[in-house]
Amino acid sequence: MKEMKNYYDVLGLSESASVGEIKKAYKKLALQYHPDKNNGNADATKKFKEINQAYRGLINPEETKRPCSRDVDPVERRTGLTPEEVRALNYNKLFDFQEKYQFNNSLSKIFSLSLVVGGSLGAYELYQEHIENPSIPLALVSFFAIALGYWGKKEIKEKNKTLEEAMEELKRVI
């Protein structure tokens, strides 16, 4: 376990030192042990890091209580969520995508039925045209049923393709 050093001792100060004295001692020691002035000296670099940590701990004690940003997961740093929370959200999103995909498949069946009904009405209309007077409203219903079925199947197919891509992407992340 890493031993905690007294920050005042690291800077060579008494515990009753003022903020001005802390800053003055820090600047003096930081210049003395700076890595640029001590080329390749590992001990000086280590001492420089200790001095910086002591200075930060004395000037802003709250900062030393927070975990270093290098110790925090990048996802957590960006979102504020732990990786487990992000994974749970992704599972929920995947579940929603799967539900939408199933709903779209149900709609696709309805549009297919609309195509069948429209085609059947059109065939009936064609049969009636040869036997009796053609029915204009029946022809319009047939046309709209076929148009709705064709358009709906096309739209659902595009939406399902997008959902499939999103689900695959989520599965790779999870």
Any chance you could write out the topology, listing elements then pairs?
Blueprint: H1 7-11, H2 19-33, H3 42-59, H4 61-65, H5 74-79, H6 83-131, H7 136-173
Task: Please supply descriptive tags for the structure shown above.
174 residues, mainly alpha, Helix Hairpins, 2 domains, rod-shaped
Describe the structure.
The protein is mainly α and 174 residues long. It has two domains: 60 residues, Helix Hairpins (Orthogonal Bundle), CATH 1.10.287; 97 residues. It contains seven helices and no strands. α2 packs antiparallel against α3 and α6 runs antiparallel to α7. The protein is rod-shaped, with a radius of gyration of 36 Å.
| Strand elements, count | 0
Q: Could you give a short account of the major beta sheet?
A: none
Low-confidence stretches: none
Q: N- to C-terminal separation?
A: 34 Å
Could you give the order of the helices and strands? HHHHHHH
Structural class by sheet pairing and helices: mainly alpha
Q: Round the Cα radius of gyration to an integer and report it.
A: 36 Å
Strand content: under 5%
**Overall morphology:** rod-shaped
| Helical amount | over 70%
Tally of DSSP helical segments: 7
Give the number of domains. Answer: 2
Mean pLDDT: 76
